[in-house]
Amino acid sequence: MGKLLIQDKEIVVPGEIIAEGMDHLPGQGTYREGDKIIAGRLGLANVEGRAVKLIALSGRYIPKRNDTIICQVIDVGFSGWRVETNSAYSAMLSVKDATSEFIRRGADITHYFNVGDYLVAKITNVTSQKLIDISTKGPGLRKLHGGRIIQVNCNKVPRIIGKAGSMVSMIKNATGCRITVGQNGLVWLEGEPKSEYIAIEAIRKIEQEAHLSGLTDRVKAFLEEKTGKKVEPGVEEPELR
Amino acid sequence: MNTMTYSKRLNDRKMDELRPIEAKVGVIERADGSAMFKIGNTWAYASVYGPRNLYPKFMQDPQSGILRVNYNMMPFSGSGERVRPGANRRAKEISMVSEKALLPVLDLKEFPNSVVDVFIELPQTEAGSRCAGICAASMALADAGLNMKDLVAAVSVGRVDDKLLVDLDYSEEAYEDGPVADIPIAMMPQSGKITLLQMDGEVTKEDLRKAIGMGKEACGRIYEVMKKALKEKYEVQ
To answer: Are A3-56 and A68-143 in the same CATH fold?
Structure first.
């Protein structure tokens, strides 16, 4: 009879034995050796029926297809741009994925994006050698003007966004800032300096308390205290952030 | 030849007793992973950066990410004498063996052409510094969220005169009235596999066997401390 040696939602360290026997299945972040399931990284154990997986709590961003990221142009070539993605690899944005406008051969493409510009882009492809293609064609994908960029732990991004965007839209409503959260851990904000500051504080709070429940209520109370206004709970917004 | 007639050690420890250990994870804010490991008067800090892009390009490996370990004793870390700062033959060797001790647990296949940098700094040392460094580095690598099949725990064991001891301090390592063997061991505590085994001195085959056995047992105890430190950082308060 198989036996689970840890609790659900417990922190496990690499090499820790999670379960014995063949009754459980090794999920993401775990591996099987003999009849044991062993943790292959540091993470939060998540038991779903027979499967056990680990949720990452730390680590750099790993580029994934269809992620919306915030990235910075670091080089301009003949037919595209090289961008920095806050990961181990830079990405390529080719002219044909950048705009639907007609661009003449040999035209000066710095007119569209120049070195140092920040973009909201979507990862269209990642190869096994981690060559990354991105696109800025699509709803919500654009060049960012003004505002400021902060860096957060990319593993906490789902909490910052909240269920269908409810958390980030609550911060937007409370502070009046425009906010874009990239899945690579970069966040862009623009608004009044004071409200920008409150929004950053709120995001830092979410980042620190991401593992605790009842976070939405605490962030709401925090925003109400800081802004001195009644804050409506965030609406679930389906569009891209 | 004198024989050591003590049943206890000079520092009042039992033969297989470790020096007091303190471990903490997440001590360096800006690093991707970091840890501190203190064993007696030997203090090690490790920070991990990466996976990040690797230059010069000829160092890149398209099959897998590489690990780069740098071991450094701080200028004021020695026994009163100033340690000359910067790389030296000894630091280079220890960096290399630490890297080889840590690599078997890591899986960097997911990060081709990239590098994971580990910096081990020792603000204060009194024997066993490479072992403390390896312990700190393995916690820092786990903290950095890398794929690892196990942690690595390390300790030095040895023979001083006719006694087998665990976790030698400087007075034991520098014992002059009899033969001394200093054997740093690093191992994966779950599987019991050894990833580092060095020796300085002389020892018989039987004693070496016994010493490794004692080291393995001690590594198990160090592993528990490392595990606790890692969980403490992330546990829900």
So the answer is: yes
pLDDT band at A237 (very low <50, low <70, confident <90, very high): low
Is A148-227 a CATH 3.30.1370.10 domain? Answer: yes
The pLDDT of residue B7? 64
The full set of domain ranges for chain A reads 3-56, 68-143, 148-227
CB contact under 8 A, B144 and A31: no
Superfamily for domain range A68-143: Nucleic acid-binding proteins (2.40.50.140)
Residue A131, chain B, CB below 8 Å: the answer is: no
Tens digit of pLDDT for each residue in B120-137? 999 999 999 999 999 999
Q: Are A228 and A212 spatial neighbours (Cβ–Cβ below 8 Å)?
A: no
Strand partners, A197: none
Identify the pLDDT of residue A214.
87
| Minimal-distance CA residue of chain A relative to B29 | A153
Residue contact A13–B231, C-beta within 8 A? yes
* Chain A contact set for B68 (CB, 8 A): none
Burial of A125 (0-12, 13-18, 19+ CB in 10 A): middle
Contact yes or no for B112 and A129 at CB 8 A: yes
Contact B52 A155 (CB under 8 A): no
Spatial neighbors of A34 by CB under 8 A, at least 6 apart, are: none
Concatenate the DSSP letters of all residues of A177-231 into one string.
Answer: -EEEE-TTSEEEEES-HHHHHHHHHHHHHHHHTTTSSSHHHHHHHHHHHHH-S--
Closest to B203 (Cα-Cα) out of B164, B153, B174: B164
Question: Domains in chain B and their CATH numbers?
Answer: 21-234 (3.30.230.70)
Q: Are B204 and B210 in contact (CB under 8 A)?
A: no
Q: Which helix (H) or strand (E) holds A68?
A: strand A68-76
Residues forming beta bridges with residue A84, ordered by sequence position: A72, A90
Q: A241: pLDDT confidence band, cut at 50, 70 and 90?
A: very low
| Gap between the Cα atoms of B172 and B182, Å rounded | 9
CATH of region A3-56: 2.40.50.100
- Check the CA dihedral B94-B96-B98-B101 and report its sign: negative
> For residue B103, which of B63, B52, B51, B152 has the smallest C-alpha distance?
B152
